[in-house]
Amino acid sequence: MLALVVRFEVKPEAIDDFDALVAETLEGIRREEAETLLYFSAGVPDDPCSRVFVEIYSDAAAFQEHESLSHTKRFLAGREALLDSYRVEFLTPIDGKFPAW
């Protein structure tokens, strides 16, 4: 399993464009990525310009496949003009309740 969390600080004037780009990307993830086990975007209640992604892949190969697909490449190219910053945290799960796979 490979898991990560990404926090995006979106430019205030770009929130709608960022969310639309994410929605397009998620369509591709749902349609094409069987080994992406969990992938969601969330807002942060006390910070309206922040978005957080939580991503869980079956393994490193599934993550590499995700990174290689056209919908992900469009997101990666399109996000740059919309962001002030972002931070990626790769996670090592220790214990918990995980989706069945």
Structure summary:
The protein is 37% helix and 38% strand.
Kindly describe this structure.
This protein has 101 residues and is of the alpha+beta class. It has a single domain (2-91), classed as Alpha-Beta Plaits (2-Layer Sandwich). 37% of the residues lie in helices and 38% in strands. It has three helices and four strands; from the N terminus they run E-H-E-E-H-H-E. A four-stranded antiparallel β-sheet has the order 2-3-1-4. Helix 1 packs antiparallel against helix 3 (70-79). The longest helix has 18 residues, at 15-32. The model has no long low-confidence stretch (mean pLDDT 95).
User: What is the total domain count?
Assistant: 1
- Helicity level: 25-40%
Beta fraction of the residues? 35-45%
- Dominant shape: globular
Number of strands: 4
Uncertain ranges: none
Radius of gyration: 14 Å
Question: Main traits of this protein?
Answer:
101 residues, alpha+beta, Alpha-Beta Plaits
Helix/strand layout:
Blueprint: E1 2-10, H1 15-32, E2 36-44, E3 47-57, H2 60-68, H3 70-79, E4 83-91
Antiparallel strand pairs: 1-3, 1-4, 2-3
Helix pairs in contact: 1-3
